[in-house]
Amino acid sequence: MTATLLRTAADLHARVRTGRRAVVMTMGALHEGHATLIRTARKIAGPEGEVVVTVFVNPLQFGAGEDLDRYPRTLDADVELAGTSGADAVFAPSVDEVYPGGEPQVRISAGPMGERLEGAARPGHFDGMLTVVAKLLHLTRPDVALYGQKDAQQLALIRRMVRDLNFGVEIVGVPTVREEDGLALSSRNRYLSPAERRTALALSQALFAGRDRHAAQEALRARAREVPASRARAEALSAIGESRAAADAHAVATTAGGPAAIRAAARQVLDEAARLDPPLTPDYLALVDPSDFTDIGDDFTGEAVLAVAARVGATRLIDNIPLTFGTFGDAS
Q1: Is the pLDDT of residue 84 over 50?
Q2: Beta-bridge mates of residue 147
Protein backbone atom coordinates (compact mmCIF):
# COMPACT_ATOMS: atom_id res chain seq x y z
CA MET A 1 0.00 0.00 0.00
CA THR A 2 1.06 3.62 -0.49
CA ALA A 3 1.31 5.96 2.49
CA THR A 4 0.06 9.53 2.16
CA LEU A 5 2.62 12.18 3.10
CA LEU A 6 1.20 14.88 5.38
CA ARG A 7 3.08 17.99 6.42
CA THR A 8 0.65 19.77 8.75
CA ALA A 9 -1.53 18.83 11.69
CA ALA A 10 -4.48 20.41 9.87
CA ASP A 11 -4.06 17.94 7.01
CA LEU A 12 -3.88 15.07 9.48
CA HIS A 13 -6.94 16.22 11.41
CA ALA A 14 -8.90 16.53 8.16
CA ARG A 15 -8.61 12.78 7.55
CA VAL A 16 -11.79 10.81 8.22
CA ARG A 17 -11.36 8.37 11.12
CA THR A 18 -13.46 5.21 11.11
CA GLY A 19 -11.53 3.00 13.53
CA ARG A 20 -8.60 3.01 15.95
CA ARG A 21 -5.60 5.18 15.09
CA ALA A 22 -2.23 3.63 15.88
CA VAL A 23 0.83 5.90 15.80
CA VAL A 24 4.49 4.94 15.42
CA MET A 25 6.85 7.81 16.29
CA THR A 26 10.24 7.92 14.55
CA MET A 27 13.04 10.30 13.69
CA GLY A 28 13.20 8.84 10.19
CA ALA A 29 15.97 6.78 8.56
CA LEU A 30 13.56 3.86 8.85
CA HIS A 31 14.82 0.28 8.95
CA GLU A 32 13.44 -3.19 9.67
CA GLY A 33 13.02 -2.36 13.34
CA HIS A 34 10.65 0.46 12.42
CA ALA A 35 8.94 -1.81 9.88
CA THR A 36 8.23 -4.27 12.68
CA LEU A 37 6.65 -1.48 14.72
CA ILE A 38 4.48 -0.46 11.76
CA ARG A 39 3.37 -4.02 11.04
CA THR A 40 2.46 -4.46 14.71
CA ALA A 41 0.52 -1.20 14.59
CA ARG A 42 -1.33 -2.44 11.52
CA LYS A 43 -2.43 -5.56 13.40
CA ILE A 44 -3.58 -3.51 16.37
CA ALA A 45 -5.47 -0.96 14.26
CA GLY A 46 -7.09 -3.64 12.14
CA PRO A 47 -8.46 -3.22 8.61
CA GLU A 48 -10.89 -0.50 9.69
CA GLY A 49 -8.30 1.48 11.62
CA GLU A 50 -5.47 3.79 10.59
CA VAL A 51 -1.70 3.66 11.07
CA VAL A 52 0.20 6.95 11.14
CA VAL A 53 4.01 7.10 11.20
CA THR A 54 5.57 10.34 12.39
CA VAL A 55 8.95 11.41 11.04
CA PHE A 56 10.47 14.27 12.98
CA VAL A 57 14.08 14.88 14.01
CA ASN A 58 13.51 16.65 17.31
CA PRO A 59 16.17 19.30 18.04
CA LEU A 60 15.23 19.46 21.73
CA GLN A 61 16.63 16.01 22.48
CA PHE A 62 20.07 16.57 20.96
CA GLY A 63 22.70 18.01 23.25
CA ALA A 64 25.77 20.06 22.43
CA GLY A 65 28.19 18.08 20.28
CA GLU A 66 25.62 15.42 19.37
CA ASP A 67 24.70 14.38 15.85
CA LEU A 68 21.67 16.55 15.04
CA ASP A 69 23.15 17.95 11.83
CA ARG A 70 24.41 14.61 10.53
CA TYR A 71 21.43 12.55 11.64
CA PRO A 72 20.25 10.76 8.47
CA ARG A 73 17.24 12.24 6.71
CA THR A 74 15.74 9.93 4.09
CA LEU A 75 12.11 10.99 3.84
CA ASP A 76 11.34 9.54 0.38
CA ALA A 77 12.64 6.12 1.40
CA ASP A 78 10.86 6.42 4.75
CA VAL A 79 7.49 7.05 3.10
CA GLU A 80 8.02 4.05 0.82
CA LEU A 81 9.02 1.70 3.66
CA ALA A 82 6.16 2.93 5.84
CA GLY A 83 3.65 2.26 3.09
CA THR A 84 4.93 -1.23 2.27
CA SER A 85 4.88 -2.06 6.00
CA GLY A 86 1.23 -1.10 6.38
CA ALA A 87 1.08 2.62 7.20
CA ASP A 88 -1.75 4.74 5.86
CA ALA A 89 -0.02 8.08 6.37
CA VAL A 90 3.35 9.58 7.20
CA PHE A 91 3.18 12.78 9.22
CA ALA A 92 6.45 14.65 8.64
CA PRO A 93 6.03 18.15 10.09
CA SER A 94 8.62 20.90 9.95
CA VAL A 95 10.26 22.27 13.07
CA ASP A 96 8.07 25.37 12.72
CA GLU A 97 4.93 23.19 12.61
CA VAL A 98 5.85 21.43 15.85
CA TYR A 99 7.34 24.48 17.58
CA PRO A 100 5.54 27.45 15.96
CA GLY A 101 6.78 29.95 18.52
CA GLY A 102 10.34 28.70 18.56
CA GLU A 103 11.70 26.50 21.32
CA PRO A 104 8.91 25.98 23.87
CA GLN A 105 9.16 27.89 27.12
CA VAL A 106 7.11 25.24 28.94
CA ARG A 107 8.47 21.71 28.73
CA ILE A 108 7.88 18.36 30.36
CA SER A 109 10.45 17.34 32.95
CA ALA A 110 11.50 13.70 33.10
CA GLY A 111 12.21 14.05 36.82
CA PRO A 112 14.71 11.89 38.73
CA MET A 113 14.10 8.87 36.47
CA GLY A 114 15.28 10.95 33.51
CA GLU A 115 18.56 11.83 35.21
CA ARG A 116 19.81 8.22 35.38
CA LEU A 117 21.80 6.25 32.80
CA GLU A 118 20.94 7.89 29.44
CA GLY A 119 19.85 11.01 31.27
CA ALA A 120 23.18 11.26 33.08
CA ALA A 121 25.10 10.72 29.84
CA ARG A 122 22.88 13.15 27.88
CA PRO A 123 21.60 15.90 30.21
CA GLY A 124 18.25 17.30 29.12
CA HIS A 125 17.71 14.58 26.52
CA PHE A 126 14.65 13.06 28.15
CA ASP A 127 13.04 16.43 28.84
CA GLY A 128 13.24 17.15 25.13
CA MET A 129 12.04 13.68 24.22
CA LEU A 130 9.00 13.78 26.49
CA THR A 131 8.11 17.28 25.35
CA VAL A 132 7.99 16.28 21.68
CA VAL A 133 6.23 12.98 22.43
CA ALA A 134 3.56 14.88 24.35
CA LYS A 135 3.16 17.34 21.46
CA LEU A 136 3.00 14.58 18.85
CA LEU A 137 0.44 12.67 20.90
CA HIS A 138 -1.72 15.80 20.95
CA LEU A 139 -1.14 16.49 17.25
CA THR A 140 -1.83 12.93 16.06
CA ARG A 141 -4.55 12.05 18.62
CA PRO A 142 -3.95 8.28 18.61
CA ASP A 143 -5.79 5.53 20.43
CA VAL A 144 -2.52 3.59 20.76
CA ALA A 145 1.15 4.52 20.28
CA LEU A 146 3.97 2.04 19.73
CA TYR A 147 7.64 2.33 20.69
CA GLY A 148 10.61 -0.03 20.46
CA GLN A 149 11.98 -1.72 23.55
CA LYS A 150 15.55 -1.01 22.41
CA ASP A 151 15.09 2.46 23.91
CA ALA A 152 14.00 0.95 27.21
CA GLN A 153 14.42 4.03 29.36
CA GLN A 154 12.58 6.16 26.82
CA LEU A 155 9.71 3.67 26.74
CA ALA A 156 9.56 3.57 30.54
CA LEU A 157 9.44 7.37 30.75
CA ILE A 158 6.72 7.64 28.12
CA ARG A 159 4.64 5.10 30.03
CA ARG A 160 5.21 7.05 33.24
CA MET A 161 4.26 10.35 31.61
CA VAL A 162 1.08 8.92 30.09
CA ARG A 163 0.09 7.43 33.46
CA ASP A 164 1.12 10.36 35.67
CA LEU A 165 -0.39 13.05 33.43
CA ASN A 166 -3.53 11.12 32.42
CA PHE A 167 -2.98 10.93 28.67
CA GLY A 168 -5.82 8.98 27.10
CA VAL A 169 -3.64 6.69 25.00
CA GLU A 170 -2.45 3.09 25.23
CA ILE A 171 1.33 2.60 25.06
CA VAL A 172 2.66 -0.60 23.47
CA GLY A 173 6.31 -1.71 23.60
CA VAL A 174 7.62 -3.86 20.74
CA PRO A 175 10.66 -6.18 21.20
CA THR A 176 14.05 -5.18 19.79
CA VAL A 177 14.84 -6.33 16.27
CA ARG A 178 18.39 -7.60 15.72
CA GLU A 179 20.69 -8.42 12.84
CA GLU A 180 21.60 -12.09 12.44
CA ASP A 181 24.84 -11.47 14.35
CA GLY A 182 22.96 -9.94 17.29
CA LEU A 183 23.54 -6.23 16.71
CA ALA A 184 20.40 -4.27 17.55
CA LEU A 185 19.01 -2.40 14.55
CA SER A 186 19.57 1.35 14.80
CA SER A 187 19.58 4.27 12.40
CA ARG A 188 23.04 5.08 13.73
CA ASN A 189 24.48 1.72 12.62
CA ARG A 190 25.03 3.23 9.17
CA TYR A 191 27.73 5.45 10.68
CA LEU A 192 29.89 2.43 11.56
CA SER A 193 32.82 1.32 9.41
CA PRO A 194 33.21 -2.47 8.96
CA ALA A 195 35.84 -2.59 11.70
CA GLU A 196 33.73 -0.46 14.05
CA ARG A 197 30.72 -2.65 13.43
CA ARG A 198 32.69 -5.74 14.48
CA THR A 199 33.64 -3.99 17.70
CA ALA A 200 30.04 -2.86 18.24
CA LEU A 201 28.92 -6.48 18.46
CA ALA A 202 30.33 -6.43 22.01
CA LEU A 203 27.19 -4.61 23.19
CA SER A 204 24.84 -7.46 22.40
CA GLN A 205 27.46 -10.07 23.31
CA ALA A 206 27.81 -8.52 26.75
CA LEU A 207 24.06 -8.60 27.24
CA PHE A 208 23.87 -12.22 26.10
CA ALA A 209 26.67 -13.14 28.52
CA GLY A 210 24.72 -11.54 31.35
CA ARG A 211 21.55 -13.30 30.21
CA ASP A 212 23.33 -16.68 30.18
CA ARG A 213 24.68 -16.11 33.69
CA HIS A 214 21.20 -15.15 34.84
CA ALA A 215 19.71 -18.30 33.29
CA ALA A 216 22.27 -20.45 35.11
CA GLN A 217 21.46 -18.76 38.41
CA GLU A 218 17.74 -19.22 37.96
CA ALA A 219 18.30 -22.90 37.16
CA LEU A 220 20.38 -23.28 40.34
CA ARG A 221 17.67 -21.63 42.40
CA ALA A 222 15.10 -23.96 40.88
CA ARG A 223 17.30 -26.91 41.84
CA ALA A 224 17.70 -25.54 45.35
CA ARG A 225 13.93 -25.52 45.77
CA GLU A 226 14.00 -29.27 45.34
CA VAL A 227 15.99 -29.80 48.55
CA PRO A 228 14.01 -32.43 50.51
CA ALA A 229 11.66 -31.02 53.11
CA SER A 230 11.86 -34.00 55.49
CA ARG A 231 14.84 -35.65 57.10
CA ALA A 232 13.70 -39.11 56.03
CA ARG A 233 13.46 -37.97 52.44
CA ALA A 234 16.88 -36.34 52.66
CA GLU A 235 18.46 -39.49 54.02
CA ALA A 236 16.89 -41.57 51.26
CA LEU A 237 18.22 -39.27 48.58
CA SER A 238 21.66 -38.90 50.10
CA ALA A 239 22.48 -42.44 49.04
CA ILE A 240 22.59 -41.31 45.44
CA GLY A 241 24.00 -37.90 46.22
CA GLU A 242 20.97 -35.82 45.31
CA SER A 243 20.73 -33.98 48.61
CA ARG A 244 24.35 -32.89 48.34
CA ALA A 245 23.78 -31.73 44.77
CA ALA A 246 20.76 -29.74 45.88
CA ALA A 247 22.69 -28.21 48.77
CA ASP A 248 25.54 -27.26 46.44
CA ALA A 249 23.06 -25.67 44.06
CA HIS A 250 21.53 -23.70 46.90
CA ALA A 251 24.93 -22.51 48.06
CA VAL A 252 25.95 -21.35 44.59
CA ALA A 253 22.61 -19.66 43.98
CA THR A 254 22.70 -17.72 47.23
CA THR A 255 26.38 -16.88 47.62
CA ALA A 256 27.98 -16.68 44.17
CA GLY A 257 25.19 -15.28 42.06
CA GLY A 258 22.80 -12.42 42.06
CA PRO A 259 22.86 -9.19 40.08
CA ALA A 260 26.57 -8.67 40.73
CA ALA A 261 27.47 -11.89 38.91
CA ILE A 262 25.29 -10.93 35.95
CA ARG A 263 26.90 -7.52 35.71
CA ALA A 264 30.36 -9.09 36.03
CA ALA A 265 29.70 -11.51 33.16
CA ALA A 266 28.60 -8.67 30.91
CA ARG A 267 31.38 -6.38 32.07
CA GLN A 268 34.03 -8.93 31.13
CA VAL A 269 32.90 -8.81 27.49
CA LEU A 270 32.98 -5.01 27.49
CA ASP A 271 36.46 -4.97 29.05
CA GLU A 272 37.75 -7.26 26.33
CA ALA A 273 36.17 -5.08 23.64
CA ALA A 274 37.90 -2.03 25.12
CA ARG A 275 41.19 -3.60 23.98
CA LEU A 276 40.08 -4.10 20.37
CA ASP A 277 41.10 -1.94 17.42
CA PRO A 278 39.02 0.18 17.19
CA PRO A 279 38.13 0.00 20.88
CA LEU A 280 34.76 0.06 22.55
CA THR A 281 34.33 2.87 25.10
CA PRO A 282 31.49 2.01 27.52
CA ASP A 283 29.30 4.74 28.99
CA TYR A 284 27.45 2.47 31.41
CA LEU A 285 26.33 -1.07 32.16
CA ALA A 286 23.37 -1.37 34.51
CA LEU A 287 20.86 -3.91 35.77
CA VAL A 288 17.78 -1.93 36.75
CA ASP A 289 14.15 -1.99 37.76
CA PRO A 290 12.23 -0.74 34.68
CA SER A 291 9.70 1.09 36.84
CA ASP A 292 12.27 3.71 37.88
CA PHE A 293 15.63 2.61 36.40
CA THR A 294 17.33 2.21 39.77
CA ASP A 295 19.77 -0.66 40.36
CA ILE A 296 18.16 -3.87 41.58
CA GLY A 297 19.24 -5.59 44.79
CA ASP A 298 20.03 -9.21 45.58
CA ASP A 299 16.48 -9.91 46.78
CA PHE A 300 14.80 -8.42 43.70
CA THR A 301 12.01 -10.35 42.00
CA GLY A 302 10.13 -9.53 38.82
CA GLU A 303 11.04 -7.89 35.54
CA ALA A 304 14.42 -6.17 35.17
CA VAL A 305 16.44 -4.61 32.35
CA LEU A 306 20.12 -5.20 31.63
CA ALA A 307 21.19 -2.09 29.71
CA VAL A 308 24.42 -0.92 28.08
CA ALA A 309 25.63 2.14 26.21
CA ALA A 310 29.00 2.60 24.53
CA ARG A 311 30.86 4.49 21.84
CA VAL A 312 32.69 3.04 18.87
CA GLY A 313 34.58 5.75 17.06
CA ALA A 314 32.23 8.74 16.83
CA THR A 315 29.06 6.66 17.13
CA ARG A 316 27.19 6.08 20.37
CA LEU A 317 25.00 2.97 20.62
CA ILE A 318 22.61 1.59 23.23
CA ASP A 319 21.10 -1.85 23.79
CA ASN A 320 19.29 -3.83 26.47
CA ILE A 321 17.55 -7.10 27.20
CA PRO A 322 14.79 -7.94 29.70
CA LEU A 323 15.44 -10.46 32.50
CA THR A 324 12.96 -11.99 34.91
CA PHE A 325 13.99 -12.74 38.49
CA GLY A 326 12.36 -15.15 40.89
CA THR A 327 10.24 -17.24 38.52
CA PHE A 328 12.52 -20.28 38.50
CA GLY A 329 11.66 -20.59 34.86
CA ASP A 330 12.73 -18.96 31.65
CA ALA A 331 15.40 -16.31 32.17
CA SER A 332 14.18 -13.83 29.63
Answers
A1: yes
A2: 173
